[in-house]
Every structure is written in structure tokens, then in C-alpha cells.
Design goal:
Number of domains: 2
Helix content: 25-40%
Number of strands: 14
Order of helices and strands: EHHEHEHEEEEEEEHHHEEHEEH
Bound molecules: pyridoxal-5'-phosphate
CATH architecture of the largest domain: 3-Layer(aba) Sandwich
CATH superfamily of the largest domain: Type I PLP-dependent aspartate aminotransferase-like (Major domain)
Strand content: 15-25%
CATH class of the largest domain: Alpha Beta
Structural class: alpha/beta
Strand order of the largest sheet: 2-10-9-8-5-3-4
Shape: globular
Oligomer: single chain
Largest sheet: 7 strands, mixed
Number of helices: 9
Length: 364
């Protein structure tokens, strides 16, 4: 064991609650007296079915998921859903359908590029011209009357831009939200969305699991070419076991859901996340030694990109951080600079340690 605590600011795969890792370690060889590791269990056996059912029930409770929504556990990640979503929803309209996108950063950009293989893409608004530093105001969006759906990325992990509103759309155009990097970090009204998806490796659990929450009436519109294993209706009818689901990742996600409940649920996490983000942005804004370029009202509570005014100090900054146990602060290669991801599992002590280091490095 090291004397200095380690704080991991990775954007994903990312920090997990210590208690969850400890519990998983203690159950690794023998889950609840079954004589088996969860990794060794049949996904159709009573042991794993109980793990699966508990995870779904806990997630439903945490996010207050209405009864007319299915919770699916898939594989393929967020990028997989960029194809899986249009394959499942483009059939809502005569072909070729049109899909509306709001381009707020790297991830929504990837999503609209992939969707263009299956449908017409309308970029209703783009923040590209301002360097992805804000969500374009909804009044400026040029939405399509009969779009198959509207796709938004509610937290841009690389650009550090987070929605602070739910778009108003016509009742017949469902909103599809990529919530990969902030799901479970704040209270949401699931009923305002048609589909919510999230790769698990940011705020849920290990890589390899993708969560999809989909309104039941949206299960009926897949294109004929949609692969069976990615057909939401088929997956829903088989309780996410049409093919073998990522069983161990579901188990860890279940432990995280249980941990979240013990923390007081999503509303309590949100309060802590507000406080953590406030502390960190305050240190970055103290003078012009550091810089975060995102408009204040759209700054992400989960992913905080920042630059040193003097970028020649970058390597020194990272080396000093590492020496203090502050890990993985290097920014995404596409934008450079630094990034601190402060997901649910990052304790406030970790943010405080980073703030202390920011102040020290700036010579305050
Ligand atoms: C990480 C991320 C993805 C991509 O997830 P993969 O699992 O790597 O496919 C998609 N969208 C957002 C918002 C992300 O943060």
C-alpha cells in the first residue's frame, strides 16, 4: 500500500468506488457461497439471473425509470449505439428518413457522421464556430418537422460542455440522448427522452457494457438490415440475454448501483457533484494561470478541460501531479491541455487535493 492516496482523474475507463472494488475482490472466487466466480456463471442460471434482476431494479429506482421504458444491457459502447440507434429508429419514417442532430462537440460529431450511413442527417445547430464552448440556444435550432428523432449528447466528455436544459420538441419526435459521461450524476426526467444510452466505463462500471433505456413504442421501427443482436425489440424480449451479455460488467454495475443507493441516491450525488465542480472551477478561474474556455452555464460537472496559460509547463505540471498521486490529467489528444474527470466515484478529497496542487503550481 502507498502512503499517499491516489486520485484517478481518467475520462474513461475511470475511477470506481473503492468499496465496490473491495467487495468485488472479496467475492471474486466464490460469489455468495455459490462456489463460483461471477465470471464463471451461466447467464441463464439462477445466480446470475438474481444479479441481473437486482441491477435492473436498482437502476430503475435510482433514475425513476417509468414502467413503459425498457432497460437494456448491450455491448458495443457509445460508438456502437451511433449505428444501433439509427438502425432501430430510422424506420419511423418513409425512407430515407431524416435525423436531427445538435453538434456540440466531439461525440455528437461522431454520432452524426455514423448516422449519415443510414439516413439523411440534418445538423439543426452547431457550436463548431465557437470552438464547442456552449450549447447553441434552442431558439437557433433548425429542426426538421418529421425527423425520425433528435440526437443530442448531453455531456460532451472531451469539450467539457453539459446541457442545463431538456430541449422542447414536438411530441412525435423522440429525443435520443447520449449520456455516457454524466448518467447518474444528476437528477433527470427520463420521460422527456425517447432513448437514453451510455457506455458504462465513465460513470457506471467497467468497459464492455452499454446501457440503453428505451420507451416501449420505439421498439417497433428497426430497419430490416438491423442485426438481430442489436435489435432493441429482440434484446428486450430476451431480457438482454438474446446473446451472452457482459455478465461481469453487469455485476460490477449492480454493485455501483447499490453503492449509489447507500450514498443517498442520484439527488444526493448531484449535490456533491455541484460542490466538487464549484471547488475546481473556482481554482481554475482564480487568475489567468489556468483557463477553461466553456461558457459558465454550460460547464460540465463531470469533465473539466483546462489549459495552462504557458503550455511549455505542461509536462512539468503532469509530472508534479503524478508525484502527488493525481493521475491521468492529460487532456484528450484532439484538444490538448489538461482534463480532470470528476465522476461520482471521485471523492471530494480528490478534488481538494487537485485544487491544492493547482494553487501550489500557480505559486498562489
Ligand atoms: C466515451 C464516450 C463515447 C464512446 O464510448 P465507447 O464505449 O468508446 O464506444 C460516446 N459518447 C460519449 C459522450 C462518451 O463520453
Amino acid at each position: 500500500m502507498t502512503a499517499t492516496p491516489i486520485f484517478n482523474f481518467s475520462a474513461g475507463p475511470a475511477v470506481l468506488p473503492r468499496e465496490v472494488l473491495q467487495q468485488a475482490a472479496s467475492e471474486m472466487l466464490d460469489w455468495h457461497g455459490s462456489g463460483m466466480s461471477v465470471m464463471e456463471m451461466s447467464h441463464r442460471g439462477p445466480e446470475f439471473i438474481s444479479i441481473y434482476k437486482q441491477a435492473v431494479a436498482d437502476l430503475r429506482e435510482l433514475l425513476n425509470v417509468p414502467p413503459n421504458y425498457k432497460i437494456l444491457f448491450q455491448q458495443g459502447g457509445g460508438l456502437g449505439q451511433n449505428a444501433i440507434v439509427p438502425l432501430n429508429l430510422a424506420g419511423r419514417r418513409a425512407q430515407p428518413a431524416t435525423i436531427d442532430f445538435v453538434h456540440t462537440g466531439s461525440w455528437s460529431g461522431k454520432s452524426l457522421k455514423e448516422a449519415a450511413r443510414y439516413a439523411n442527417v440534418n445538423v439543426a445547430a452547431s457550436a463548431k464556430d465557437n470552438g464547442f464552448t456552449a450549447v447553441p440556444p434552442q431558439a437557433s435550432w433548425k429542426l426538421t418537422q418529421d425527423a425520425a428523432y433528435l440526437h443530442i449528447c448531453t455531456n460532451e466528455t472531451i469539450d467539457g460542455v453539459e446541457y442545463n436544459f431538456v430541449p422542447e420538441v414536438s411530441a412525435d419526435v423522440p429525443i435520443v440522448a447520449d449520456m455516457s459521461s454524466h448518467i447518474l450524476s444528476r437528477v433527470i426526467d427520463v420521460s422527456r427522452y425517447g432513448v437514453i444510452f451510455a457506455g458504462a466505463q465513465k460513470n457506471i462500471g467497467p468497459a464492455g457494457l452499454t446501457l440503453v433505456i428505451v420507451r416501449e413504442d420505439l421498439l417497433e421501427h428497426a430497419l430490416p438490415i438491423c442485426p438481430s443482436a442489436f435489435h432493441w425489440k429482440t434484446v428486450a424480449e430476451h431480457e438482454s440475454m438474446y446473446n451472452t451479455p457482459p455478465t461481469y460488467a453487469i455485476y460490477i454495475a449492480g454493485l455501483v448501483f447499490d453503492w449509489l443507493k447507500r450514498q443517498g441516491g442520484v439527488a444526493a450525488m448531484e449535490q456533491r457533484n455541484i460542490e466538487k465542480a464549484r471547488l475546481l472551477y473556482e481554482a481554475l478561474d482564480a487568475d489567468d494561470f489556468y483557463q477553461n474556455r466553456v461558457a459558465k452555464e454550460y460547464r460540465s460537472r463531470m469533465n473539466v478541460p483546462f489549459y495552462l496559460r504557458d503550455e511549455s509547463l505542461n509536462e512539468q505540471f503532469l509530472a508534479g501531479a503524478k508525484a502527488r498521486g493525481l493521475l491521468q490529467l492529460k487532456g484528450h489528444k484532439s484538444v490538448g491541455g489538461m482534463r480532470a474527470s470528476i465522476y461520482n466515484a471521485m471523492p471530494i478529497e480528490g478534488v481538494q487535493a487537485l485544487v491544492d496542487y493547482l494553487n501550489e503550481f500557480a505559486g498562489r
